[in-house]
Amino acid sequence: MTIGSDKERLTAIHEAGHALVAYLFDMPIDEVSVIPEPGRKGHTISGYDNLDLERCADPETWSAIVMISLAGEVAESLLMGTDMRRIGPDDWTIAKEIVETVSRTSDENVARIKALFDKCYDQFKAMVTALSFQNLLGNLEPTAELYLGIKNFSTARLLSEPLHWSVLQDFADELIKRKHIDGESVRTFIKGRLEHYASHPEEARAPNPEHVNGIEGEMRERIELACM
User: What is the DSSP string of the chain?
Assistant: First the structure.
């Protein structure tokens, strides 16, 4: 049974996406809310909100923060079948600012972010091969926009796993009922549901296959644009 109105559920799915990815990357979660406020329908506050990116020397942390930022709109797209190219300007802007901020750091950090881009690019080439888009590779070079596109795709792959999608749906239901959940309760709930579905995989459900397949079309367009 679906809980809440369509608008409530979409907001809850959005915030649940942020919260679940934050949990999966072991990032602090302070609170999650679907109580409307001026300028926003809900919010997820994570420890990375106060992280000094210019002093953070861990590329994996940067990568995780980008995926957390993108996860809300990706979750919406997986639920509704909407095109990921419509990703909300706020989430995309936050993710892009993270990449740009890190790029302005010390020489040592710039070397780290270049290594992260190169690693991400290697993952991207593997994706392209898996999706049979090899003919589009050409002389493609890693860029911030392409990096975000790859992370968008990777976030969708992560959330569309039946185990994760089931937990996301359950957390969205809980969020609609409670409206506001503190960080400790968020982690307890997600941990419990992950353990439940790990023990009962037959109960896990995946998002609509057509919605998942639509991600390939979005990725193809990003590749084509990057090759121009």
Answer: ---S-HHHHHHHHHHHHHHHHHHHTT--EEEEE---BTTBS-EEEEGGGG--TTT---HHHHHHHHHHHHHHHHHHHHHH---GGG--HHHHHHHHHHHHHHHTS-HHHHHHHHHHHHHHHHHHHHHHHHTT-GGG-TT----HHHHHHHHHHHHHHHHHSHHHHHHHHHHHHHHHHHSEEEHHHHHHHHHHHHHHHHH-GGG--PPPHHHHHHHHHHHHHHHHHHH-
Q: Is the pTM of this model over 0.70?
A: yes
User: Do strands 180-182 and 29-33 pair parallel, antiparallel, or not at all (unpaired)?
Assistant: antiparallel
How does pLDDT run across 113-148, given as a tens digit for each residue?
556 556 655 655 565 555 444 444 454 555 666 677
Q: Which residues pair with 33 in a beta bridge?
A: 43, 180
Taking each helix axis from N to C end, the angle separating 107-130 and 144-160, rounded to the nearest 10 degrees, works out to 60
The answer to whether 113 and 102 are in contact (CB under 8 A) is yes
Top-level class of domain 6-227: mainly alpha
Q: Which residues of the chain have pLDDT under 50?
A: 1, 85, 131-137, 139
Q: 179 near 34, Cβ under 8 Å?
A: yes
Instruction: Give, in degrees to the nearest 5, the angle at Cα 119 between 21 and 61.
Output: 35
Could you tell me how far CA 102 lies from the centroid of its own chain? 19
Residue 15 · residue 41 · CB < 8 Å: no
